[in-house]
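Just wondering, does anyone understand these tokens?
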Amino acid sequence: DLGREQRTFSPSQRVALSLRDGGCRWPGCDRPPSWTETHHIHHWKDDTGQTNLDHGILLCRADHLRLHNEHWHITRDDTGQYWLTPPPGLDPDQKPVLLTSKNTILRDDGRV
């Protein structure tokens, strides 16, 4: 974990995220890790953003742009699961969707 020392994720962190996430975590996206970018779930520009594995998630460029441009939000719960919350304009209830790993080798019960 790099904390606030560095904004970009290191090559070894990218490998770890690639193994954990298995590609873009956006629902329905099949882009492999090589097509992804690392998103800070707590924006790095804010003081709460850290370059740590549990604060990073892989998204392809299109879904990363969608997340920011359409104001979707990703959170991580106490069990380590990642959730995607739609903007109120798309879902007034803002019901979160579980973001599962695409790496089926690491998942034995639908979890990472």
User: Anything to note?
Assistant: The longest helix spans residues 11-21.
